[in-house]
Amino acid sequence: MKTAKQYTEEQQGYRLHVLPTNKYKTVSIVVKWKAPLEKETITRRALLPSIMEKATENFPSARKLQGALEDLYGTALSADASKKGENHVITFRMEVVNDRYLKDEDSILKKALHILNDVLFHPKSEGEGFSSSVFKREKETLAQRIRSIKDDKMSYANTRLLDHMCSDEAYGVHAQGHLEDLEPLTNEELYSYYKNMLQEDELDVYVTGDVSREELLPLFNEYFVRSAADPAPSTTVSDIQVEEPREIIEREEMSQGKLHIGFRTHTFFGEEDYYALQVFNGIFGGFPSSKLFMNVREKHSLAYYAASRFESHKGLMFVFSGIDPADYDQAKTIILDQKKAVEDGEFTDEDVEEAKQQIIHQLKETMEHPYGLIEILYHQQLSGRQIEASELFERLEKVSHEDVVRIAKKVELDTVYFLTSLEKGDA
Amino acid sequence: MKTQEFHQINETIHEEKMDNGLQVFLLSKPEMVKTYGIFTTDYGSIDQTFTPLGEDKEITVPEGIAHFLEHKLFEKEDRDVFQDFTKLGASANAFTSFTKTAYLFSATSHVYENVRTLVDFVQDPYFSEQSVEKEKGIISQEIRMYDDQPDWRGFFGTIGSLYHKHPVKIDIAGTVDSIQHITKDDLYTCYETFYHPSNMVLFIAGNFEPEQMMDFIRENQQRKDFPEAPEINRRFPREPASAFKSEEAIEMAVSTPKAYVGLKEQVDGLSGEEILHNELLSDMLLDHYFSTSGKFYDELYQSGLVDDSFHFETEWEREFGFTILGGDSRKPDAFLRRLKKMLLSVKEEKISTEDFEKMKRKKIGEFMRALNSLEFIANQYTHYHMLGVNLFNVLPEIESLKKEDMEEFIENWIQESQMTTFQVKPKE
């Protein structure tokens, strides 16, 4: 998508996207490293951001690094890693208070960029590894985080659903890595992978705030320098046909059951059908006015939440609801009936219009948030299809009742997953 | 309509108190696409014992009723209000806290219709026996959802172990049992007492013309009738200064133990300004020692007693105040011993003038970043207004803080008797 003002510069080894706006009191910088999603590398990539943001050559401990950021009016720096379809993306985000003295020798933005450059390209190293104390501590922390997934039942149920549904696909790997790959990982192996990432990842940098291209370019040329890179080609995603829907029940010590259902949409970001998929999701389960909320919650009082969302780059859709373990059959039937109702055209033209307006509102709202806008633009960058916001809205407006019915039929049930309490006989 | 300009941050607030007592604030931001509105009543889960409007005998209502009322206000005789916002292309939500219930929308079109929808639905209740019964199933599942979340249990467990009898110790949503006792009549009683315009604040921020918006709201309010309302008589039990229990633990299916230290803050007799002053100082102090750059956090992290799930929060209100620190720990006993010792040793630590200036700069940056968000401004402006303070004076307040203020705050801060510890232990 193109916004009113947007500049993309091909810098050495990265694309710099500048989005000037006067809406914010801060300047936000987002750095995205992208590589194919693979079981072999995912654990290393999950560990890297937390090591990189802990210590650098110039700021050799977490306290010194954070202290330097705090000196810059508490500049915020964060890093995380996530799956985007069958790509893995490591994101660094920095938010700097706009001092409006950009050309000044001592500008905050300049100093902040200097720190960011250090974090990305000059982590604290010892021989052919990262700082051994940082490595050891962060490895323990990640192991801890992986073990704790189970403590958050909603995300645990999501993870288990994907384990079953995508066991033979790259998308089935865990974004936070796998214990069996983490335990044997050495500092040297990780460092060598980091060097590899510097060379091969595709790198995009976004800047938004009250800044101009003319001010930023010289700053980036001086303070954000990547050696020549050779990015790996993008992966094409595999689209699987469902042979036979599956039903899986697992038990844990818990009081509420988590009913999570996975579908294949066979529809991807940027495709013509993608707009109709969004509207379908709106009618089916995307909003409080959708069929899922109105029936599972309001009509039958079975749940506090019952909703659907879709993954744009992998062609998946998920329904999730928290229910009493005894209500499993009823809730499952009601949810699947709602999808059938959309297939049978049991909704009005007015419902279609309302869903579109909700989606457009949501998009506009997301675009007004600095990180939200950047996420939308990056989605487009990933799909290789850039369109104007106005065109995006136009395409949504064109979606018809018929299109929604067609998509409802195209979306295929894959796996019904129920994580429930230990008491037998409920489900 | 009054206008207040805040030059330093380049914002203007328009305000008016309506004839019926409703306080309205407007923040016009023509450069934004979005408009956000929040309608808040000074009524939360702690307001359990009070004298109903028009009566003279005090009553105590079932736990979780403020939250229950919040759910039920969305349902009308013929429709669900979510649908009204949907038709206007907006999204709506609501929340209940210890001290407030708030209804909100966000819209990128039909701004006036959305404001009207918000104000009208909150000011026009419809409760029936049947819909109250239906809601019990939904809220039971909401409560069960939280019951399965160990962080939530840890947080509320700590508060429960800090307070002897103050209703801040009860869950905001109540319990599956307590909500069974709620009736349609209870809801009307609470509604009439606490949803009187004179107990409420409306804040609209975003893309509109302020004079026109204020006229619109005024006309809307003038069309409605409300009885005269005296000041609400709420009663809270007398709460000792000390913590209820010095330690407490529960067992749950968790992979890693969770451990927390809770501190009961003293708010008795503090004015709004003093509450803000103390809240800022305690936040800065905790940040100085326990954020990623903090000396104490570093010690805890390096010695493997905590991981990055460690966090802290401090909440200061008219009726209560607390600070909670903690997170996952594989050695919870050692962690809690060390953390308590650190907190008690803050008095002996020295903060240099340079450190203090740094703490201030960080707080200012944090505040400026937060001002990017219309939601933050509207929610916090309302919050501070109800305490009798202006949000936009927070910045000058931070700037004027001196090292001596911090020293004085620390001097009176913690006694061991005000502390509690709480653990979520893995089930054997």
Automatic annotation (TrEMBL), chain A:
InterPro entries: Metalloenz_LuxS/M16, MPP/UQCRC_Complex, Peptidase_M16_C. Pfam families: Peptidase_M16_C. SUPFAM superfamilies: LuxS/MPP-like metallohydrolase. Residues 185-358 form the Peptidase M16 C-terminal domain. It comes from the Bacteria. PANTHER family: INACTIVE METALLOPROTEASE YMFF-RELATED (PTHR11851:SF186), METALLOPROTEASE (PTHR11851). This is Peptidase M16.
UniProtKB/TrEMBL annotation, chain B:
Residues 182-362 form the Peptidase M16 C-terminal domain. InterPro entries: Metalloenz_LuxS/M16, MPP/UQCRC_Complex, Pept_M16_N, Peptidase_M16_C. Pfam families: Peptidase_M16, Peptidase_M16_C. This is Peptidase M16. The lineage of its organism: Bacteria, Bacillati, Bacillota, Bacilli, Bacillales. It comes from the Bacteria. Residues 63-150 form the Peptidase M16 N-terminal domain.
